């Protein structure tokens, strides 16, 4: 392969040394990192490694402000909580295969959603799930027991990368509160 | 080693001689080991060779001499700030020519500060580049089959192999 003028064989040596290459890649932005997945199979494997992702995230936290991540509730008018448009049928969510999705919260691109269904004529029940619209993956949130479900006040997504690489779903019920593990 | 020795002579891989002060050499573990092992007194003519070319070794020694006072005695915050500014100026070099040599040398000489600095400079250099520019710099072959490229495009819409 033709060498680019100026960059000698030493660049090749750097790229072959996985330790050095990893150390450099940890320092590029997440956006560049995603772009570089297309460089070669080796780079794809290296960048896709969960340990690499986690190290990168932790490094970015150290470099940025003390609390760069916060869970945010969607404030777009389309999703405001007291209007009919809260319940929407969005074509992008066809893969969820449920008729009407309610968006409760977004957190770094993950969405916490619910859909309601009739149990009996007058009795509603809700299913909750977390989905990643980018990868179209989703997981159902299993509430621990009936008591939690019946007395549920709110359900929230939380993420604190310096503590854990996993997102948590936090449920608050009257008299009970708890964390439901969610590893999407 | 005689305690009166303040500077030592080393050879680059090109065979040129360089002087480095003892306090600066202590920034590198292997150099430090050399200090302990090799006789540097006047009546000893053994000159150790460092497997780094002359052009790179000049820069590495410049870095060591600048950082040595702080590394050996600790320093105030204002010194640290000044040193940071100096590092930025120091890295404003012809990157094509020497950056990766410095990186390899810092790795070989176990110099954490310089290694971090060089990795960051390399990362800053890379972040604006396209995938094909990266492949050219590091002499990497695109080894994805067309099916694999297609699959990646599906997973990451908008990704580019060029």
UniProtKB/TrEMBL annotation, chain A:
InterPro entries: At3g26010-like, F-box-like_dom_sf, F-box_dom
Domain F-box positions: 18-52
Top-level lineage group: Eukaryota
Pfam families reported for this sequence: F-box
Coiled coil segments of this chain: none
UniProt-listed PANTHER family: F-BOX DOMAIN-CONTAINING PROTEIN, F-BOX PROTEIN INTERACTION DOMAIN PROTEIN-RELATED
Name of this chain's protein: F-box domain-containing protein
Organism from which the protein derives: Acacia crassicarpa (northern wattle)
Classification of source organism: Eukaryota, Viridiplantae, Streptophyta, Embryophyta, Tracheophyta
TrEMBL record, chain B:
Known pathway: Protein modification; protein ubiquitination
Alphabetical GO biological process terms: jasmonic acid mediated signaling pathway; protein ubiquitination; ubiquitin-dependent protein catabolic process
Positions of the SKP1 component POZ domain: 8-67
Entry superkingdom: Eukaryota
Keyword list, A-Z: Ubl conjugation pathway
Record function comment: Involved in ubiquitination and subsequent proteasomal degradation of target proteins. Together with CUL1, RBX1 and a F-box protein, it forms a SCF E3 ubiquitin ligase complex. The functional specificity of this complex depends on the type of F-box protein. In the SCF complex, it serves as an adapter that links the F-box protein to CUL1.
Subunit structure: Part of a SCF (SKP1-cullin-F-box) protein ligase complex.
Full protein name: SKP1-like protein
Organism: Acacia crassicarpa (northern wattle)
């Amino acid at each position: 392969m033709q060498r680019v003028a100026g960059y000698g064989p030493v660049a090749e040596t750097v790229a072959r040394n996985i330790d050095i290459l990893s150390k450099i890649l940890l320092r590029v932005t997440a956006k560049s990192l995603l772009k570089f997945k297309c460089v070669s199979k080796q780079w794809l494997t290296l960048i896709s490694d969960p340990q690499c992702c986690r190290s990168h995230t932790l490094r970015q936290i150290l470099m940025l402000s003390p609390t760069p991540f916060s869970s945010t509730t969607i404030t777009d008018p389309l999703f405001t909580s007291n209007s009919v448009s809260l319940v929407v049928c969005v074509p992008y969510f066809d893969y969820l295969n449920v008729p009407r999705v309610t968006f409760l919260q977004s957190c770094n691109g993950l969405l916490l959603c619910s859909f309601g269904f009739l149990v009996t004529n007058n009795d509603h029940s809700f299913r909750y799930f977390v989905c990643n619209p980018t990868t179209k993956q989703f997981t159902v949130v299993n509430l621990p027991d009936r008591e939690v479900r019946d007395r549920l006040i709110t359900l929230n997504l939380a993420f604190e990368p310096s503590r854990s690489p996993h997102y948590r779903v936090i449920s608050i019920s009257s008299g009970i509160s708890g964390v439901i593990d969610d590893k999407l | 080693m005689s305690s009166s020795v303040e500077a030592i002579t080393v050879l680059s891989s090109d065979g040129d001689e360089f002087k480095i002060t003892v306090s600066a050499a202590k920034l590198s573990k292997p150099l430090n080991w050399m200090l302990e092992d090799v006789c540097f007194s006047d009546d000893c003519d053994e000159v150790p060779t460092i497997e780094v070319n002359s052009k790179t070794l000049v820069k590495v020694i410049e870095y060591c001499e600048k950082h040595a006072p702080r590394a050996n005695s600790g320093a105030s915050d204002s010194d640290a700030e000044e040193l940071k500014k100096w590092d930025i100026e120091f890295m404003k070099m012809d990157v094509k020519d020497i950056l990766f040599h410095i990186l390899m040398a810092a790795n070989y000489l176990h110099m954490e500060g310089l290694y971090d600095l060089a990795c960051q400079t390399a990362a800053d250099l890379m972040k604006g580049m396209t995938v094909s520019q990266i492949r050219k710099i590091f002499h990497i072959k695109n080894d994805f089959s067309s099916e694999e490229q297609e699959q990646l495009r599906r997973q990451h819409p908008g990704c580019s192999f060029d």
